[in-house]
Each structure stands twice: as structure tokens, then as C-alpha cells.
Amino acid sequence: MADAAEQAARIAEAGGLERALTDALRFMGYAYLHLDRRQEAQRPLQRALDMARASGDRAAIARTAMVMGMMYGEEHRLIEALAMFDEALALVRPSGDRLRTAAYLYNEGELFFRRGEADRAIAAYNEAIDIFRAIDARVMLGYALSGMCQVLCFAGQYGPARLHIDEAERIFAENDDEFGPFWCMSARGRDLERDLGACDAARDHLQTVVVSLGQTSYTDETLYALLALADVQVRLGALDVAEATLAEAGALIQTAQAHWFLPEHELVTGQLAMARDDPAAALDSARRALAAVGVNGDPRTLPAIYRLLARALQETGADDADMVHDALERSVAAARGRARKLDLALSLRALGQFLKQRADRPTNQARGSGYLFEADLLFSEMGIEPPA
Questions:
Q1: Is the pTM of this model over 0.90?
Q2: What is the DSSP-derived secondary structure letter of residue 263?
Q3: Has residue 97 got a pLDDT over 70?
Q4: Among 127, 133, 148, 135, which residue's Cα sits nearest to residue 85?
Q5: pLDDT given at position 2
Q6: Domains of the chain
């Protein structure tokens, strides 16, 4: 595919066919992306976009910006990706191309979700879902419903999330799509069942995703499933199996240079160390995870990383109350920004318990009670039992 695009670009350039050259360059960039050769994709895509802008070809600008948005998204350069999709949407909406508009909105919803902006992700997915329904684009509707399930779980809305993933599964059962069922299994296992404590079901779904996608170019989807699977295995006490899963994820992260996943990899590695009564190793993992967030790592992991840091500090035997308190305060602050609602509840509960147990002043005792009350309220809203 890439070779054909390169040949088409050479022929178009030799013949002075500017529009054909723009299309060929865009197709070349898309082919490189499909082959997971992102570094080679940027140059032809940027040239195609520059040529389209210079000629004022609105359709070509929109199509090329969309592919560049996909490229930036795969590199987790989310601000640049959103800028590309915003430009594409601004051009496509007035054209009346509803399918393309919905597809761009779907991509924006995923990007907002990765940034932890639940409200904006829900709005983008809702608009995409409405359009896909109206034009009867059933397969794309299934993907959008699956994505919406993930965001709704992130926002703690598990009832609506279940309805969305149920509908997505029905759609893929009725339509021949190779990967749609695995997107549903990933959303159900990683986001819905894991949050609700259904670890056996989550493990089964995630194992199927890993086996099915592991030999494809869907690196990000495979890594999300692998890391969630390792987390579930730790919770189920299958520690040696979890270690092997983490080793597989670590090798893939290194091969793909997928720095976005390093914080979660270190987080689950630290949780495994805690399960093996090795808080010193867990402390090292927590610190590496924090450093990885600062190098284009997933910031949504911060609340859980700070909770791990606090717990490891407490259990290393070198318990510094101020350091533990600081870690838990940071966990709550991060969770109030862009994190799962469940993470906010867990962070508030951890800080409240610490203050109630360790605070030496009535004001801090009262603060601890306030945090515990807020956490219990959130657990009640989500329909989740607080951990023992």
C-alpha cells in the first residue's frame, strides 16, 4: 500500500498534477500509519496539508487534517491531535457530510477521554452517536457506543455504561466486523467489570482481547488490555501470572516506544510488589511512575500512583507522616482534576482514614470526617461498595 502511494506521488509530481499529488501524499501518510511507521508518516502528511491549504481545497484540508490528527493521537500528542480534528470539523460540518462529521466527532471523543475530560468526551460521543443513528451507520455506531461506555465508566455512570455496551454488542453480533467485538470486550472488562469488582469476568474478557489483538497493529488497544489484565490478576492473587503479563506489556511498550503506558505499567508493578509484601520495591515503582507521567505518560493514573506511594511509604517502616499526608493530598488534588470518579472516591477515603487515624488536632479530625463523608457519597452515587 505504501509503495503504491509513493509511486503515485512520483507520477503526480512529475506531471505537475497538484491535486493528485496532494491525494497521493495523504494516502502515503495514511499507509505509513497503518503499517505503524509513524515517523515516516509526518513528512508526506505535512506536505499534503500545506499544499491543500495553499490551494484552498477545503475537502483536502479536512481529510488531511483528519489523518494528521490520527497520527498525533497515536503518538499521544493530544493537544496537536485535537487541533487537527477541530480544523477538520470546522470545514466538514458546513459541507453536510454527516458521516465524516460523526467520524471526526468520534475521534475527538476518544481524545478528550484520554485527556481525562469526561464532559467534553461525552458531548462529542453523544453527537456522533446521534448522527450514526440518523444515517444508519450501524458499525460505526457500535464503536461509538463502546467508546461512550468507557467514558461513562470513567464518570462513574455504570448503569448507562452497561446499556451502551449491551447495544454495541448487539450491533456487532448483527454485523460482520472483525474487531468490533474485541473493542466491546475491552470496554466491558477494563472499564465496567474491573471497576465493579467483577474480576473473574474482566479477566476472561481481557484475555480474549489480548490473544485476538496481540498479533495485529493495534498496539494501544493491546496494551490497555494487557495492563488491565495484569491488574485484575494481582487482585485475584495470581501473582506469577500477573508478573508474566507485565513482562509481556513491558516488552511491547519498549518495542513500540509507547511511553504513554509507562506510568500504568509501573503502577501495576508496584501493586504486584505490595501484594508480595515488598513495599520498598513498590515505592521504587511509584516514583518511576510519577517520573513517567512527566514524559508524555497517561496523567489519569496520577491519583492511583499517589495512593500507592502513600501506602508504600507507610509500610516500608520509615513512615514519615508528612510525606504520607502530602502524597494523599496530591492524590485527591489530581483526582479532582481529570481522573476516574472511582479514583476520586478512593483517594478521598484514603486521605480521610489517614487524617482520622493520625491527625493530632480536632480540625484535622474534622477534615478527615469530611473526606470520608464525601467518599461515601460518591460510592453511593456510583452504586459501588467501599473497599473493606
A1: yes
A2: H
A3: yes
A4: 127
A5: 61
A6: 258-388 (1.25.40.10)
